[in-house]
Amino acid sequence: MKIGPRKITTAYRPIPLEVPEGMKANEFFNSTENLNDLMHNNGLLRNPEDLLLYRKALGHSNLFDASIIYNTSQSILNPLGRPVRRTQVPEHVRNVWNRMNQIIIDYMQQSFPNPDSHLILCGEASLDATWPLTSPGVPSIRMLHNHFIVFDKLSLADAELADANCPNLTDGGQHSLFQSYMHDVYQAFFDALNLEILIPVTGEKSQVKLTGYPQGLPCWEIVGGIDSIHEVQFWSEYDTLLKGFLDFYKTFFSQVSSRNAPLVSNLHFPEQVTQKLLLSNKFLATAKIVRDQCINDARYANAIRWQPAFKQLIYRNDDNRWIVTISQNSIGNAITELLGVVVNRVADTDAYAQAEPQLIEHLLKVREKLVAADLGNEIATEYWA
Fold first, then answer.
1. In this structure, are residues 167 and 330 in contact, taking their beta carbons and an 8 Å threshold?
2. pTM score
3. Closest Cα to residue 49, out of 106, 95, 102, 93?
4. Residue pLDDT tens, the chain, 385 long
5. Among the listed residues 70, 135, 74, 140, the one whose alpha carbon sits nearest the alpha carbon of residue 100
6. Which backbone phi and psi does 308 adopt, to 5 degrees?
7. How far apart are CA 282 and CA 284, in angstroms?
């Protein structure tokens, strides 16, 4: 069997959503009206912390696919003022979010226990203003949300190979500099964060064998396996990885922007940044490469994402290891593409209807567990009571 990224087709029911005349779809997606539609047509559960569990109308998988969004659309009307990463979420909300993650991940593990049969992944995506404002698709829904997805590995094995040179699969462009020029610096910086539950792993130990992904991304194995997600220390270290990534990225692009720039304000780990980055000739030389190209290539400069975006994943590999990885400012790729799964969504009401009963059965069962744990109240739609 050939190893490589896979391209699968996933059916969905066309969304009965009318965008107001004169408004672009991506502009409408930020509105309270759109979030109301999401809740009333696909919402499963909501709680006083403004966390909304919902079915993905444009799903990655029709086996199991759900998301939680921090729905601040009515409390923060300015899309650019909404929290877009875990570090911006109030602690009491983040605690509830972590508990919801624990229950849903446990459900996926119990319902799909065989790593040879199913690929399980969950993770969060930053949706802040990282693209140039003239780019298509800006803005998207500016609220932090995460995904819970299960893929059938037999279907993945039968799927056609995807184009391995697709930028969405390679984290390409200037972002590959992390791996090509600064791999050792990047790893040394994370090593200085003193993690205990998350230990670095590389190569095949972290990869999904069918696809050979992730490629070139830092990965950490969860010591103690999936049971460790019930420990406060795990979520603390999960957040530490994100904070470290944000510090690294902000510092790097501050040096790209201005030679010998001062220490960025509001860093999480200023001492590690000073010791591991600002005195690293390799780090600063790489910033010069990007800066020089920005000066001489207008198109390249316009494509730079000056503010850090990320996709952070927890997934189960073939050896039943649970791994955490974080992208290197991914360039528009779907969260599944970090694991080499490219999803082609097609509108097909009949095909979706065949998969919908089993999908909804799973979603309602996991909702019952969340309600029992006092993590929210059910939402009724025309598709479920």
1. no
2. 0.92
3. 93
4. 789 999 999 999 987 777 888 887 767 776 777 777 788 889 999 999 999 999 998 899 999 999 999 988 888 888 778 888 888 899 999 999 999 999 999 999 999 999 999 999 999 877 665 555 556 555 556 778 899 999 999 999 999 999 887 777 765 444 466 777 888 898 899 989 989 999 999 888 999 999 999 887 889 999 999 999 999 999 999 999 999 999 999 999 999 999 999 999 999 999 999 999 999 999 999 999 999 999 999 988 877 778 777 889 999 999 999 999 988 765 556 789 889 999 999 999 999 999 999 999 999 999 999 999 999 999 999 888 7
5. 70
6. -75, 130
7. 6
What distance in Å separates the CA atoms of residue 189 and residue 280, rounded to the nearest whole number?
A: 11
Edge to edge, the sheet with strand 51-55 lists 198-201, 219-222, 322-326, 311-316, 118-125, 145-152, 64-70, 51-55, 43-46, 377-378
Neighbour count for residue 100 (Cβ, 10 Å): 24
Contact 219, 245 (CB under 8 A): no
- CA 234/CA 99 separation, integer angstroms: 12
Q: Which two tokens stand for residue 356?
A: 């919908």
Are the beta carbons of 78 and 122 closer than 8 angstroms? no
Helices (H) and strands (E) in the chain, counts: 12, 13
Within a 10 A sphere around the Cβ of 46, how many other Cβ atoms?
Answer: 19
Query: Is 286 within 8 Å of 199 (Cβ atoms)?
Result: no
| Percent of residues in the chain assigned helix, strand, coil, to nearest 5 | 40, 20, 40
Please list, in sequence order, all residues whose beta carbon lies within 8 angstroms of the beta carbon of residue 29, skipping any fewer than 6 positions away: 139, 140, 141
Within 10 A of 241 (CB to CB), how many other CB atoms are there? 20
